[in-house]
Design goal:
Chain lengths: 270, 360
Amino acid sequence: MLFASFRYSGEYGGLAPWYYIEDGGFTLDLTLENWRRLFETEIYLSLLIKSLTYALLTTLICVLMAYPLALMIARSSKRYRDLLLLLVILPFWSNFLVRIYAWMIIFSPQGALTAALNVVTSALGLEPISLMFSSTAVITCLVYVHLPFMILPLYANLEKHDNRLLDAAQDLGANRFQCFWLITWPLSLPGIYAGAVLVFIPSLGIFAIPDLLGGTNGIMIGNVIKQQFVESRDWPFGSVLSLVLTAITLLLVLLAAKLGRPAGEDNGKK
Amino acid sequence: MLEIIDVSRRFGDFVALDKVSLHIQAGEFFTLLGPSGCGKTTLLRLIAGFDHVDEGEILLDGKSLTALTPEQRPVHTVFQNYALFPHMTVAENIAFPLRMAKTAKPVIDLMVREILEDVRLPDKANHYPNELSGGQKQRIAIARALVNRPRLLLLDEPLSALDAKLREQMQIELINLQKEVGITFVYVTHDQGEALALSHRIAVMNKGEISQIDEPSVLYSCPDNRFVADFIGQCNLLDATVISVGGRHLRIAINGLGELDVCPNPEIDFAEGDSCALTLRPEKIRLAATLTKEDDEVLFSGKVHDMLYLGDVTVYIIELASGVLIEAMLANDAPGRTRLFDTDDAVQIAWRTDAGHLVP
C-alpha cells in the first residue's frame, strides 16, 4: 500500500505501471503527487480531524455509559451476572446493518422520537429539528454499536477486583467516593484502555454508519477512503488516506499499551 | 476501654455470636481464639464496623460505636491477605490513612519515614507491594494501620500466610511493636500456640460463645471446661465420675483406670456422683521402663502403642492393660540417643495427684 501511494492511478482506475521502457531505457514512474494532494487539500485533513473527534467522542460517551453498567454487573450476585452479560451481547445476534436500519426508523422525520422532540421544540417556540442525517445520529449509532466492546473488557477488569481493598480503604478512613476514586478507578484503568482501543479504532474507520445515517454532514474519513477505492477508483490516493489512518491508529494503540501497563503490575488481581 | 455488651449476630438461622460480652483494657494485647466458624472474625468485623450487631452494644471509651461507619471509627484493621493497594507505592499505602485524615503533606512524609523505621523497612518506601516478600508486606500492612495511631488495632489472622520460621520472628516483632506504640491490639487467630505466645489475655470462643477469658498460663493449666482443655495444647481428657468428696483429695473413678485421687478444682464444688473429666497434660506424666510410686502419685503399667518423633520431644501413646490410651511426652535430652522406647516396649507411667485438672 505504501508503494501504491507513490504511483499514478491508471487510465481506467486502479494503478498505472510503475515504470516504462523508452528507447531501451528503464525509467521509474513514481510520484509524490498523492501525498501533496493530502496536505494541500484542506478538506481531507479537516475530515480526518472530524473523524478523530467523532471517534474520541464515541469513546468518551462509551466510557461514561459502560462504567456504571460494568460496575453494576461486576457487583451483582453471581445468579444474575450471566443473564446481565447475555443482555449486553444480545444485539450481536442480529446483523450489524439491520441494527443501523433500525436506527434509521427511529431517527426518521416521521419516527416517534423525532415527533416527540418536535412537540417539545414547538412548545418552546423553536424550529422543528431533524435527527436523521446529522452528526448526532452518527455518534448515537456509533455509541450504540460499540458499547458492548467497552462494557466487556471493563467488566472483566472490575470483576477481578479484590473487595477487601475497599474494606481496607474504608477502614483507613476513606468515604464511598474516595474508595471509588482512589481504589476502584485507578485499578480499572487497564480495562478502560482496552475498551477504548476496541471502540476507538473501529469507530475511526467506519463507513457504513455515516453512509446510512450521516447524510452530507456526517461523512467520515472511512467514507472517503471507500469512495477513492470503489467509486473514484483512485487507488493511489486511497492508499495515502488509508496509510495515514493506519499510522494514527498504530500510534494510539502503542500509547494505550503503554498506559495500560502502569506500575504495580498485577493491578488488583490476586 | 472497649466494652462488648451482650452482642448477638445471626445470619439467617445460623447464630454467629450469642450474647457475647467482653471487656478489653487499654494497652492490652487481647486475642480472640477459636476454631473456624466460632464467631471470632464476625466479632472483629462488628468492632471494625463492616457488619452491624443484631443485639447488644459496643462501647469504645464509653461511647457507642453502633452509629459510626467504618471510616468514622478510630479503629484500624490488619487484614489476613494484607489488602495493600497494588497501584500505590509502600509510602503511598502508608500515607493513605493520613491523607484521609487531611494531615499536612510535610507531616505525612515525616510520619511515613518514622513508621518505616519502626518496621525496619526504610529503604522500601518507593517499592510497589508486589515487589515485597510476604513478611515485608505484613509489616507494611501493620505500619499502614498504625501510622495515624488508632485507639484500637484489629488484626485478623495476620500471620497465617507466612511460613513457620517467619511467623515466629514476626510474633516477637509484634510483641515488641505493641509494647513500643502502646496501642490496644485485638488479635484474631485459630492458632493456639500463637495466641499463647502473644497475648496478655485470651478469649477462647466456641460456637458463637465465649468459653473462657484468662491469661495464657491460666488457660493452659486451669481450663474451665473440656473444650478449652482440648483446644489449647495437647491434653488427655478422661471421663470420670466423682466417688467421694471431702478431705484433701477428691476420689474419682475413670473407666479402665479404676479409682484414683485428684486435687479438687478450687473454682468448682463437685458432689458425689457428678460426672466430670480429668484433664492431664502429656508433659506432666512421668514415663520410664520401671518407676517407683512416690507419695501423692498414681502409677499404671502399659506398653508403647504409637509414637511421634518431634525432634526436641517424642510423644508416646501408651496403651494401658485395660486398653485406655494415654499420651505422654519425653524430652530427647539424653546424649547420643534419639528416642528411649520402641513400639510395644513395656513401660510405666505415673502422675502426681495435683498434675491433673478436673473440669465439669
